[in-house]
Amino acid sequence: MASDGDVTLRLAQPDDCDALFYLIQALAEYENLSDAVSGSSQLLKEHLFGSPKYAEAIIAELNHQVVGFALFFHNYSTFLTKPGIYLEDIFVLPEYRRQGVGKALLSRVAQVALERDCGRIEWSVLDWNEPAQNFYRLMGAAILDDWRICRVKGEGIAQLAIKS
pTM to 2 decimals? Predict the structure, then answer.
């Protein structure tokens, strides 16, 4: 368990999945993507704590209340020939922002990357989310304008799988 002032950070435990899924829904609402959430806290629990383990999460608490999270998993850089961390989501409930929670979460992910000898940490940010972009730049991140995200999902995965 790590603490940064009043912010307490810890690795998520199976009992945290309901609170974590609530935060995921709050993130989706903030991003105007509530209709994109189709999972459940039970699926989240299976993916975070089952075998195989697909992702990890860090929980942020203020006064023993869960107020934010960072969910990440490993990727790999062929150019660096090192593992990396992909930060899928970092989120702090709006009423707890500007209290060091996001900074503490991002810093803890960086500590994990150092401990695991990762070559980089990457994540995406929506083009309209200027407050987040400003925060990430303040924390030392570069926003890469020359790269675009490619995505295949749902039925597109099945269609891609049969192409030869």
Answer: 0.92
